């Protein structure tokens, strides 16, 4: 059931930076990163009947068997068979599915920041791309679109909600657009520091969005107090689209540095204290282990719903999201800022980490890629 894919497009993700920083364990020398990719089928195993060489396809970032308890429900990110890592099982009490390019913690599968990739269970983990969906849109079905949609849907964004989103990267940006698609009345996106420019980008692409730059808040004003000033009682929904590795206060910085915790609770606590009583908080940004100083009192006393959105089950959503791309109700191009060549991946990692050059979401081309689709970025080179 293996399929070999000739890669025509991949990308870099904030999740890749967790590997780059060593936050995700068990990355080994020689591992190939990249969990999002699309391409053309080069060859198929004898048991693969639904796709053939030459088909344009996108791969889901998780590897599902298609047969286990979770796969039968299309909860593909929790496949029971494709990740044999024992450390994850001990830490979490269960395992996620195997994932492309995400260290041996998730199975040690080679990723898509390459020219070719092996896709196990290729009859399950590849989706055909129709001619009217170019690679520059279809690629993002592999992760970012499914992850954003899962964050919004799983946290229960509904008509009339006021939604606050922590993080203005690609996931936060798409969550903002998708919250409006789900009927949200207001969406407030929060970011700051070296990434504050992303707020202007999100606002320019989705003008209805309101923004909050936490670095501009006056002394004595917190994100929580500002949100309650902007909306009586605070937002109905808070979405975490950042991650747990970026501590702001010195206390968490020290505790993380000496190994007393793996993740900061600062954003989670801001979300809990910011939402209305009985508000809903969804966590999609990556958290890998344990945290201290968690405000469990506010969670319990005020009835806050804290929802771990999990690794998004791509198979549950990608066919519907493909239809949205086709009918224009979903526009993934709003986040696409750059096109770069695979040969410059090392430079891209450094610039993406530094939030430099206004890099939001990237299309990484290979020698097999078609020319840029109309309306998408031309090639950027730093050589």
Features:
alpha/beta; five-stranded antiparallel beta sheet; 383 residues; 15 strands; six-stranded parallel beta sheet; single chain
Molecular structure report:
- The chain is of the alpha/beta class and 383 residues long.
- The chain has a 6-stranded parallel beta sheet, with helices on both faces. A 5-stranded antiparallel beta sheet has the order 6-1-2-3-7. The protein has a two-stranded antiparallel ribbon with strand order 4-5.
- Helices cover 29% and strands 18% of the residues.
- It starts with a strand and ends in an 18-residue tail after the last strand.
- It is globular.
Reconstruct the topology from this structure.
Elements: E1 3-10, H1 14-20, E2 37-44, E3 56-59, E4 62-63, H2 69-72, H3 86-92, E5 98-99, E6 116-119, H4 122-125, E7 126-128, H5 135-138, H6 144-154, E8 162-166, H7 170-181, E9 186-191, H8 197-205, E10 210-213, H9 223-230, E11 237-240, H10 250-257, H11 266-274, E12 280-283, H12 296-301, E13 305-308, H13 314-327, E14 336-341, H14 345-353, E15 361-365
Parallel strand pairs: 8-9, 8-11, 9-10, 11-12, 12-13, 14-15
Antiparallel strand pairs: 1-2, 1-6, 2-3, 3-7, 4-5
- Roughly what is the average pLDDT, rounded to an integer? 95
> Termini separation (Å)?
40 Å
Which range best describes the helical content: under 10%, 10-25%, 25-40%, 40-55%, 55-70% or over 70%?
25-40%
So what's the overall shape? globular
H-E order? EHEEEHHEEHEHHEHEHEHEHHEHEHEHE
Low-confidence region ranges: none
From the alpha carbons, calculate the radius of gyration and give it in angstroms.
Answer: 20 Å
Number of helices: 14
What structural class do the secondary elements suggest? Answer: alpha/beta
Counting DSSP E segments of at least 2 residues, the number of strands comes to 15
Q: Tell me about the biggest sheet?
A: 6 strands, parallel
Beta-strand percentage range: 15-25%
The strand order across the widest sheet is 10-9-8-11-12-13
């Amino acid at each position: 059931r293996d399929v070999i894919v000739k890669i025509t497009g991949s990308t870099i993700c904030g999740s890749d930076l967790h590997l780059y920083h060593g936050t995700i364990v068990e990355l080994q020398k020689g591992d190939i990163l990249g969990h999002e990719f699309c391409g053309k089928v080069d060859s198929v195993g004898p048991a693969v009947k639904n796709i053939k060489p030459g088909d344009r396809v996108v791969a889901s970032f998780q590897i599902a068997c298609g047969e286990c308890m979770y796969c039968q429900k299309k909860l593909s990110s929790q496949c029971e068979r494709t990740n044999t890592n024992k450390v994850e099982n001990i830490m979490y009490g269960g395992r996620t599915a195997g994932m492309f390019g995400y260290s041996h913690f998730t199975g040690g599968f080679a990723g898509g920041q390459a020219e070719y990739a092996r896709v196990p269970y290729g009859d399950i983990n590849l989706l055909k791309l129709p001619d009217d969906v170019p690679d520059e849109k279809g690629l993002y079905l592999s992760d970012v679109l499914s992850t954003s949609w899962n964050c919004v849907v799983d946290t229960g964004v509904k008509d009339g909600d006021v939604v606050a989103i922590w993080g203005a990267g690609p996931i936060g940006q798409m969550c903002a657009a998708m919250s409006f698609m789900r009927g949200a009345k207001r969406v407030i996106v929060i970011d700051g520091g070296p990434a504050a420019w992303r707020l202007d980008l999100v606002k320019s692409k989705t003008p209805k969005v309101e923004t909050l730059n936490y670095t501009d808040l006056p002394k004595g004003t917190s994100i929580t107090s500002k949100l309650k000033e902007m909306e009586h009682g605070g937002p109905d929904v808070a979405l975490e689209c950042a991650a747990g590795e970026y501590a702001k206060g010195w206390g968490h910085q020290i505790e993380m540095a000496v190994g007393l915790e793996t993740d900061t609770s600062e954003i989670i606590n801001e979300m809990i204290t910011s939402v209305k009583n009985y508000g809903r908080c969804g966590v999609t940004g990556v958290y890998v282990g344990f945290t201290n100083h968690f405000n469990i009192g506010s969670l319990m006393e005020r009835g806050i719903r804290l929802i771990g959105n999990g690794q998004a089950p791509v198979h549950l959503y990608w066919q519907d999201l493909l239809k949205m791309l086709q009918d224009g109700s979903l526009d993934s191009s709003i986040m696409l800022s750059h096109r770069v060549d695979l040969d410059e991946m090392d430079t891209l990692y450094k610039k993406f980490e530094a939030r430099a050059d206004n890099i939001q979401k990237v299309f990484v081309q290979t020698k097999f890629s078609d020319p840029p689709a109309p309306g998408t970025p031309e090639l950027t080179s730093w050589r």
